[in-house]
Amino acid sequence: MRSTSSTLRTRKSPSRLTASPTRRRAARAAAAAVAGALALSLTACGSDDDKSDGDPPKSGDATAAAVTLPRLDGESLEVSAVWTGAEQANFKKVLAEFEKRTGAEVTFVPAQDPIINFLGSKIAGGQPPDVALLPQPGAIKQAVERGWAKPLGADALEELGENYSQGWQDIGKVDGKQYGVYYKAANKSLIWYNAQVFENAGASEPKTWDELITTARTVYDSGVTPFSVGGADGWTLTDWFENVYLSQAGPEKYDQLARHEIKWTDPSVKEALTTLAEVWGEKDYLAGGPDGALQTEFPASVTQTFTGGDQPKAGMVYEGDFVQVNIGETEAEIGTDAKVFPFPAVGDTAPVVSGGDAAVILQDSKAAQALATFLASPDAAAVQAKLGGYLSPNRNVPESAYPNEVQRKMAKALLAAGDSFRFDMSDQAPQAFGGTPGKGEWKALQDFLKNPKDVAGAQRKLEADAAAAYGD
């Protein structure tokens, strides 16, 4: 997963989207009744009236006691992450708060994807950052195996135990030892839509995959292309697949595929790809068609959905809560012009897929440990929460820290999943398979978007690349 990248889509005859395979119809009908167990109502909210001050907790606040940090006057730190744009700017405000509280000087060092390669070159040159934000559990494991990552100290562990569920702690561990603080999370089971387009078309929010197909046709018939897809960034396509696969195949199969305990040639993968082809195979349902989608980066996939009045390039765009950052670059108002619904249930239940970025210490020092402790606290998360486009897995961040009702409900949904959420599958894989542009799963799904009839070919390519990356 990435929360800062890009992509999009176009239109055609909706013939194949008029009906779903009979073998899935009964399961999907049942899903309509149970999808509400995981799907929160995320619409009609987010106007200016919903905004709160969202000030971070301060010492003496009734909601939270400020985390205790040492004085670090004269100390300096470098922090590296792949974040760009507003995401980077907002995180720098968190670092500025750390500087204010400790007296340390913190420099943000922009990283390139894949971050493991970037860190490798920095370490080889004798200039590693003190702390890095790693977007994949697989990257944390690689950093540990290469001897780069340092375990968290007692203060950071105490803060983690106080503020995080066991599930969020566990994905930051390697061989039972804690290395990562999941500072940033994502609810990646959301579809955003242009409210005016839906109103003009008479479309309603779908709760099941069949209803999503019906909604897409309704939007198409109104004269607007249904979907914008950021196919130039392969990670958006892995997120599509993961939501379909988790809901359709179930969590046990999801975990097995994530660990490569079953092959990508498994029938469950075939079924998920066949389902995806019900959308990806309708070129007129994608803004720009498959070729246009493959040239569209993630930010553009969002902005073109919410510009152009009631005739945008597309009516819907799939991606996580961080879409808000890019909507903010348009004139659309979240909760009024731009609304959101949970990813529809494909099987018995709607999916809850999450991602995130973990702070990992690369140079062990009092200052680096203090920063990790700060990032594990509600204080740090509350600073960025009020700026929008951000969710924290920290259960002690007050809801009032989020700037609008849409954001508060998404945060609540993430925490309500408890330990039943599933982490982004591609982020659990070795980076060579699940996190490298132009290679592995990203490239295989881009090829599948271009030719969604070749399910078997996509499976063979995915399995070959996975076997090589996992060392099977």
UniProtKB/TrEMBL annotation:
Signal sequence range: 1-46
Record keywords, A-Z: Signal, Transport
UniProt-listed InterPro entries: Bact_solute-bd_prot1, SBP
Highest taxon of source: Bacteria
Residue numbers spanned by region Disordered: 1-26
Keyword Secreted: no
Family from the record: Belongs to the bacterial solute-binding protein 1 family.
Protein name in UniProt: ABC transporter substrate-binding protein
